[in-house]
Structures are given as structure tokens and as C-alpha cells.
Amino acid sequence: MIKTNRPTVLQFSEIRKSYGRTVALDGVSLAIGEAELVGLLGPNGAGKSTLFQVASGLFAPDSGTLNLFGHSYLQDAHQILSQLGVVFQARSLDLEMTVRANLKFHGGLFGLFGERLKKRINAVVDLMEIDELLDKPVGTLSGGNQRRVEIARAMLSEPKLLLLDEPSVGLDTVSRLRLVAHMHKIGGEHGTAILWATHIVDEVQNADRIAILNRGRIFAEGSPAALMTQCGAANLTDAYVSLSGANPGVEPE
């Protein structure tokens, strides 16, 4: 595990998780620093979603330790969840409600009301450029626009860490590129740390650091340039294939 030179917001230490005889995570150690964009790169079935479920408190690991913002879920889940934004792979918006109503409802869950909620909605609407979508039912929006709304919702509470689990699934190329641009804006202008799980190499080619996860283990970790140098690869895709033995974008048998 590479130690970040920034204050740590998330640290996995020897995390293990199994489902019966199936080992999903096999001793994963990874640290994320403040305002750092880290790509968790691996094929489908590598263990990325399980790691995110552990990070978000949905699953408890079988062994190992997890620390977020200096806290443990066992001791202070409230402190963690108040500083954490999560966008899961599965869509979770109310499709019949408008974008505005979805944001208001979610804001209320975080104790945001009145003028403070209004200011936060305005801020995330500007951030994700969704002003023209506010009064439209979510179910009428494209997949890309729904993702932008989900990220806006996750940013309402001004989280210190944003977890993104395969957020571009089902999106067209233009929507994916727009999503990547928004993520760099969030990290660069707002100082939010981001852990982005994906199997698409070009989405994280400009990340501060990349961790290659496959078969439940971290096979390599470092900046994109460092990973390419490590195996003498001309590009990040070749480095990924060399270091993980994975075929990008292809689900293993």
C-alpha cells in the first residue's frame, strides 16, 4: 500500500470479505488522501463493488480494519456518513419525482432545510450544470442526466469523500466524457476526495493515483505514469493488462 502524503480520509487495512467459498476481497489495503482522485481499476467481478459496500458501511468485513475521517463504523457511523457521498452502480433516484423534489428529500435526510437547503441545491445544480432539469421528472431524463443528478444529490452535504461505483454504466461516450470532466471539477475546485471504481481505463487515466484490483487483491498501485514505467508500457491500457492480467471491459468467465 502506498501511503498518501495528504491527510487520510479513507484507509482500508487488510480487508477480507467472502460469500461462502467465494473470496471477494483478499487482504485489500488502500489509503485515500484529502482532495485526491483515485481510480480503482479492475474487470467486472474483481471485487470493486464489495469494497464500496464495505466503505459505505453496508457490509462489515470478515477481517481487517476500515477508517474514515479518523472514525470507525463501529464507534461513530454518524460522523462518517455525514461526511460521505456515495453513488452506487444501481440507480437510486425516485423516477416519478422531479429533480428538485429528489434533492429536497435527500437534503432533509442530512438535516438541510430552509435557506440552507436552498443554497446547497443551487450550489450542486451549478456544479453539475443541471439547472434546466430541475422541474423535470427524473424518469424522463437520459441516463447521463440521471447520473449527473445522482452526483449532485451526493454532493448536497458537502462530503469530504465521494465514492463512485461504476457511475458510467450504460452511458454513451459523450455522457461519459462529460461525467469525467465533472469529477475533475469536483476534486479540483471543491477539494473533495474521490474513489472511482471502473473497468474503463480512459475514465481514470488522469487520476492522481490508480489501484488495480483483480480477483479480490490489489495487484499494483501508483500514478498512471508510474504504472506505465513499472512495466514499460506505452499507455495505461497496456500497463493495466500487464499488471493485472485482465482484459479491459471484458467480464471474466
At a glance:
With 253 residues, the protein is α/β, with parallel strands linked by helices. The protein is built from 8 helices and 9 strands.
Word description of this protein:
The protein has 253 residues and is α/β, with parallel strands linked by helices. It folds into two domains: 1-83 and 161-253, 3-Layer(aba) Sandwich (Rossmann fold); 93-158, no CATH class. It is built from eight helices and nine strands. It has helices at 48-55, 73-81, 99-109, 114-128, 143-154, 173-190, 224-231, 236-244; strands at 8-19, 22-33, 37-41, 63-68, 84-87, 161-165, 193-198, 209-214, 217-222. The chain has a six-stranded mixed sheet with strand order 5-6-7-3-8-9, with helices on both faces. Strands 2-1-4 form a three-stranded antiparallel sheet, with helices on one face. Helix 4 (114-128) packs across helix 5. The protein is globular and about 50 Å long. Mean pLDDT is 90; it is low at 248-253.
